[in-house]
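Q: Convert this sequence to structure tokens.
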Amino acid sequence: MGTTQQTKDHAKAVIDADIECGHALAAGLADHPVVWSAGKLSEIADQPPLIAINVATIAIGLARSDRRMVRTGVRMLAAHALATLAKGVIKHRVDRARPHLFADRDEHVPTPGNHDEGPQNSFPSGHTAGAVSVACAVAREYPGAANSAHAASAAIALIQIPRGTHFPIDVVAGAIIGWAAEALVAQVMPDAEPIRRARAIDRAAIVALTPG
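A:
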């Protein structure tokens, strides 16, 4: 019994700290020009523009006969779709008022519900889920671009807090969803890098064995 109560107390403390942090950052920074501008730029991770980017990647790859780029676009699209599905299911089952509403504490506590309204769907962060899923997909196909991709997704995720659209826990949950979605897609679409290395080794072996 004591352990159960301690767990509840710890959970309450975490939620209280989450709400306090979200409110403090939103109250102090939401109207700052840099935060406002960065927040607008982060809308690239909203569903329509991110889908457009994924499809455009496939189209450009096809136009250039670049199989790697096509594969990347397909991986991006699949990971994003899975992340969107997962966060949508959770949003429809969890009610949480967004930070910028500055409502009563109880409204900011994640609770079971069925609201399908933006102001009540703070948990989890869909922008973060989408950005992280696509970044992981790009990083898997283009390891050299991993740092840039992850930095961009992190920036998109973190700006959601001071702009008042999400609490820190919402962002963390969104990141986990995005990462997990791409990891699941990777089970169906294995990493292409080992395949490319194997082909390169085979070609090198053929050249070495070919009589001069």
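The first strand starts at residue 94 and ends at 95.
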